[in-house]
Each structure stands twice: as C-alpha cells, then as structure tokens.
DNA sequence: TTCTCTCTATACTCATCGGTATAGAGAAAG
DNA sequence: CTTTCTCTATACCGATGAGTATAGAGAGAA
C-alpha cells in the first residue's frame, strides 16, 4: 500500500507543476520508483490516478463546506467561516488546491476538467443551498443563488490565487476584507 | 495567406475547446484542410501557432487597456471603462478570451502558461501603473498596486467567466455592480 | 507442501507526438 | 524559356503516448 501512496504523491507533484495533459504515465512511475503495471494495478488508468487524488484528498474540503453551509441565520459569520475554511485547506494542501484550480479553469472538453467538475459542482451546489437558506433572512438574495455562489467561489479563488503566488499573506485582516468585498455585491 | 488565417482560426477553436496540451499539430492541420509542412512554414512550431494567436488577436485588448489606464483623475470612471473594455473584448472574442483565461490559470511550468504569461504581465503592469497614478488622489492605494491590480483582474475574470458560462448577462447594471464590488475592496 | 491471491517487473502493443527531408506546383521576374 | 521564390504535399524520423500480456515473487491458508 506504500507504493499506492507514493504514486499519488508524485502524480500530484507533477500534475500541479506542469498540468495533467503534459504529464505521462511513464514519468509518474519513474518518480515513484515503480513500473507501469503497478500504477495500472492500483488505479486502472491515468484518469483513475487523478480521480483518486480528487476523491481522497479534496473530499475533506467538501465535507467541511457541507458543515459550514448548513446554517444561515448569521450570514456574515457563515461567509467568514467559509472563507476561513478555504484558506485553511489551501494552506494545508497547496499543491492540490493549485492543481484543482488550474483544472477548474481548464476547458469543458478537457479530460481533467471533467474529473474536477464533479467536485466543483458539489461545492457550487452546497453554496447555492446556503444562499437559498439565507434568502429567508435577506430577501434580495432570492433567485440569485447561482450567481452568488459562483461569485463567492470566484472571490475566494482570486484571493487564494494571490496567496499561492505570494502576493498576499493569509492574515485575518485579508480574510475580513475578502468577506466584506464579496458581501458588498450581495447587499447592494 | 488564406491558409495561415484558417490555421489560426482552427487552432483557436481546438485550443479553446480542449486545451493546448490536448491538441496535436496533426489535428489542427486536418481541421484546416492542409498538411503539416504548411503549418510549419507559417509558424515554425506548435508553440509558434499559439504565439501568433496571442500576439495578433490579444494585442487589441492590451492596446485599449494601455489607453484606458493613462489617466487616473477619475478613478471610478476609469474602473468602469476598464471593466467595459474587458467585457466588450470578451464578447467580441469569446473563444480567444476563454482560451487565454484557461492558460492564465494553468501551471507555471506549462508551456501554454509561459506564452500567455507575457500578455498577462503586460496587463498586470498597465493596471499597476494605473493604481500608482491613482494613489496621488487616494492615499490608501499607495504601495498596494500589485494586490489591487491582481484583485481587479480577478474580479473581472470572475464576472467574465460567469458570462462565458451563461450564468449572467453583460448588462450595464452587472458591470456597475462589478465595479462597485471591486471598489469596496479599495476604499475600505 | 501446495494452492491461491496480491502485487510488481520485463517486454511488448499500436497510435500519436512534434518535427522534417525532399520534391513538386505555380506564379513572378528576367 | 529559364530561373527563382513561395507555398504545399508525400512520406518519413525517433520519441513518447496510454495501456497490456505474461510471468514471477512473496505471503497466507489448506
């Protein structure tokens, strides 16, 4: 089972550096110090490697998000918690987050996009249901869940992208500012 | 010269749909109805095709941006003009903008990223110099040009991404909202 | 011991990758 | 009527793409 973990780790390293399409199976197994049949034994295909990576290591983020979006009585507090959750996750798994971000912005017909799209849709759905719940407290949210969820993710990813590239620090003040900036779009 | 234009058009079509890495030279020439030496005659390499695409079709955006960022006496008006300019360009060249966006978010060691990075750096630089100029009117901008330029591009791209996916229309009201949302981050 | 099951390596498949050597077609210039 | 230059096709290059057939090594169970 050690080879399996090593393969996943090396694949993440390579995918996050040069992209899914640019990496060959041969390259992954060489970095992991094994041979191709070992990879195909555990994952079945190159696609299977990426799916395992997403399913196993991105799942905690989605679980936490599901938790943070169940209550919407205090919208600003929930928004702050959601931002914090994403920042914490990106700090714990910077390579994974960078890879997922690149794939999320890749094209619809691209294989990597289709794999990440499942996890992305889950996040979008959780946020939409959050805004639906919030709309019972804030009338002007009603009917705009989809746009709000998307702009929220967009704002979060803009800030995390800045942090990943070293342009900003992940201070409480920055998170507060990001929440405020997003909130302005809601209550206007 | 017709074959050259057809090659560029088909390459854009394919790159924007499945990504630079996922598309082979063979596929491009087949869609264009020519053979490989024709492509290599005009562009020298696969990379050359993408460079021609960026240099020739993305340049108008950068020229317009250079124009819109020269004056910073009226910051809100300039910001609105910049947003409008990006929206107009994305509407005129949706495929190109989608492709550029995907490559911008792809990984640093990826070939496509490195090609687009030049154009991206130009935009970033123009926006930074705009904020430097604006700082003589708004003191709290000083020293934060880099972050502001990056979050401005992030906000713009979030909204254009939403428009490209059909989630929002490009109405004057939406543009106004985007400007307001971004501005909140500045003056806070 | 022997049988089975999980895991991994050697060595291979065929398709596609980016790129090119060579040559011919056609137009313009002399 | 030949020379020259631009453009394009046929046919190829070695390298690499994803994926696999076969077999052996080692552990656990009988």
TrEMBL record, chains A, B:
Q: Which residues bind DNA?
A: 24-43
User: What organism does this protein naturally occur in?
Assistant: Herpetosiphon aurantiacus (strain ATCC 23779 / DSM 785 / 114-95)
Against PROSITE patterns, the record matches this protein to: HTH_TETR_2
Q: Does the keyword Lyase apply?
A: no
Keywords for this protein: DNA-binding
GO MF terms, alphabetically ordered: DNA-binding transcription factor activity; transcription cis-regulatory region binding
Taking every annotated instance into account, which residue ranges of this chain make up the domain HTH tetR-type?
A: 1-61
Q: Name one Pfam family in it.
A: TetR_N
Checking InterPro entries in the record gives: Homeodomain-like_sf, HTH-type_TetR-like_transc_reg, HTH_TetR, Tet_transcr_reg_TetR-rel_C_sf
Annotated protein name in UniProt: Transcriptional regulator, TetR family
Cited PANTHER family: HTH-TYPE TRANSCRIPTIONAL DUAL REGULATOR CECR, HTH-TYPE TRANSCRIPTIONAL REGULATOR RUTR
Keyword DNA-binding assigned? yes
């Amino acid at each position: 089972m050690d080879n399996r973990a090593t393969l996943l780790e090396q694949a993440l390293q390579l995918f996050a550096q040069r992209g899914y399409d640019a990496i060959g199976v041969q390259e992954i197994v060489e970095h992991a110090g094994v041979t191709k049949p070992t990879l195909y034994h555990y994952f079945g295909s190159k696609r299977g490697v990426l799916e395992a990576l997403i399913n196993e290591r991105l799942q905690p983020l989605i679980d936490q998000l599901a938790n943070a979006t169940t209550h919407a009585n205090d919208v600003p507090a929930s928004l702050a918690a959601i931002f914090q959750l994403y920042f914490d996750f990106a700090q714990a798994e910077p390579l994974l987050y960078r890879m997922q971000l690149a794939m999320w912005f890749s094209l619809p017909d691209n294989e990597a996009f289709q794999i990440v799209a499942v996890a992305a849709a889950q996040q979008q759905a959780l946020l939409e249901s959050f805004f639906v719940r919030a709309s019972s407290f804030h009338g002007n949210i009603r009917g705009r869940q989809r746009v709000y969820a998307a702009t929220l993710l967009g704002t979060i990813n803009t800030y995390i992208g800045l942090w990943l590239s070293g342009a900003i620090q992940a201070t409480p003040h920055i998170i507060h500012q990001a929440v405020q900036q997003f909130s302005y779009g809601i209550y206007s």
